Amino acid sequence: MASPQVANGNGSLSLKKPSETKGKTITCKAAVAYGPGEPFVVENILVHPPQKMEVRIKILYTSICHTDLTVWQGQNESQRAFPRIFGHEASGIVESVGEGVSEVKEGDIVVAIFNGECGECVYCKCEKSNMCERFGVNPMKKVMEGDGTCRFSTIDGKPIFHFLNTSTFSEYTVLDSACVVKLDHGHSLSLKNLTLLSCGVSTGVGAAWNTANVHAGSFVAIFGLGAVGLAVAEGARARGASKIIGVDINPDKFIKAQAMGVTHFINPKDEEKPVYERISELTDGGVHYSFECTGNVNVLRDSFLSAHKGWGLTVVLGIHSSPKLLPIHPMELFDGRQIVGSVFGGFKGKSHLPHFATQCGHGVVKLDNFITHELPFEEINKAFDLLIAGKSLRCLLHF
């Protein structure tokens, strides 16, 4: 296959000549996880051709999300499937397409989305939902939707399982066409920044815009200042929230958070009283919108009680892998507070991401601060260490 190259200043790519690998099995590098928490093994694997309504992509940039970390560590036994290729946040270029694919073609710039949009099911046709009946987020899914088999295998032919409809920790990957969004026109974003729209930034900003519909002058509390939490802050800042309170046990995150819209910082370790009481004091009774981005049920309770009685809304974004149930008594809902979950920020991938990319390109949402590290793909284990240590928001891996 010809090497793609930058064609212009906005990061668009093109192929020098038609693909030489179409219809053939590709040998390439991938980071394979062979067991829960085991170091990733960067090795040659086989990537088989796309089948009907599938797309094979050359990944150019991929990054690591806490969801990758949680499932790789095996915190939820029901999600374990090894060997496996993780990763779900990436930008790349279409290498080839399978039968029936018409929305993208060889050479198109695309991003992968873990929450697909087929455009035909009852969920996709509903304006109130961004779910998809066949291609929605499903961390337990480990094979392709079409025929229930894998497109990855070891050099000696043993299958390697898929992850979250995407599996981007590979130089080439195969996705259902419902999980591929073309983004090569109408924006001025670099390929690096496009990668962020696959998950983290879209999830956080979308939660503020679509799920909560944050309004100007409102009070916001964000529990967990990772990439998703800071994306919520960016979204709230863009909407004109007057007070954005960030809650995190890592004091080093406050400087970065300030640059992304956070006006107040609370470290629970420094507080003698419950965090929700401290937030109530800062906001005259509670915030309009609280966002739980940690996946901790105890934090979820603080987030819920931080919302103002009568109208406060709590949005759940954290991945709760434990079997523990909501720490909320039903009668507490009679105080007028509401709680709702948000997947991919309420964005319908194919329908909404192109416009969102344009907005980001115009500076409505600032993306540069989210990329804190860049490493060659072979150093993926170091990238995970940075995330575990709380030292990175998004570490961009490149081939």
UniProtKB/TrEMBL annotation:
<keyword id="KW-0560">Oxidoreductase</keyword>
<comment type="subunit">
    <text>Homodimer.</text>
</comment>
<keyword id="KW-0862">Zinc</keyword>
<dbReference type="GO" id="GO:0005829">
    <property type="term" value="C:cytosol"/>
</dbReference>
<comment type="similarity">
    <text>Belongs to the zinc-containing alcohol dehydrogenase family. Class-III subfamily.</text>
</comment>
<dbReference type="InterPro" id="IPR036291">
    <property type="entry name" value="NAD(P)-bd_dom_sf"/>
</dbReference>
<keyword id="KW-0479">Metal-binding</keyword>
<dbReference type="Pfam" id="PF00107">
    <property type="entry name" value="ADH_zinc_N"/>
</dbReference>
<dbReference type="Pfam" id="PF08240">
    <property type="entry name" value="ADH_N"/>
</dbReference>
<dbReference type="GO" id="GO:0051903">
    <property type="term" value="F:S-(hydroxymethyl)glutathione dehydrogenase [NAD(P)+] activity"/>
</dbReference>
<dbReference type="GO" id="GO:0004022">
    <property type="term" value="F:alcohol dehydrogenase (NAD+) activity"/>
</dbReference>
<protein>
    <recommendedName>
        <fullName>alcohol dehydrogenase</fullName>
        <ecNumber>1.1.1.1</ecNumber>
    </recommendedName>
</protein>
<dbReference type="InterPro" id="IPR002328">
    <property type="entry name" value="ADH_Zn_CS"/>
</dbReference>
<dbReference type="GO" id="GO:0008270">
    <property type="term" value="F:zinc ion binding"/>
</dbReference>
<dbReference type="InterPro" id="IPR011032">
    <property type="entry name" value="GroES-like_sf"/>
</dbReference>
<dbReference type="InterPro" id="IPR013154">
    <property type="entry name" value="ADH-like_N"/>
</dbReference>
<keyword id="KW-0520">NAD</keyword>
<dbReference type="GO" id="GO:0046294">
    <property type="term" value="P:formaldehyde catabolic process"/>
</dbReference>
<dbReference type="InterPro" id="IPR013149">
    <property type="entry name" value="ADH-like_C"/>
</dbReference>
<feature type="domain" description="Alcohol dehydrogenase-like N-terminal">
    <location>
        <begin position="52"/>
        <end position="183"/>
    </location>
</feature>
<feature type="domain" description="Alcohol dehydrogenase-like C-terminal">
    <location>
        <begin position="227"/>
        <end position="346"/>
    </location>
</feature>
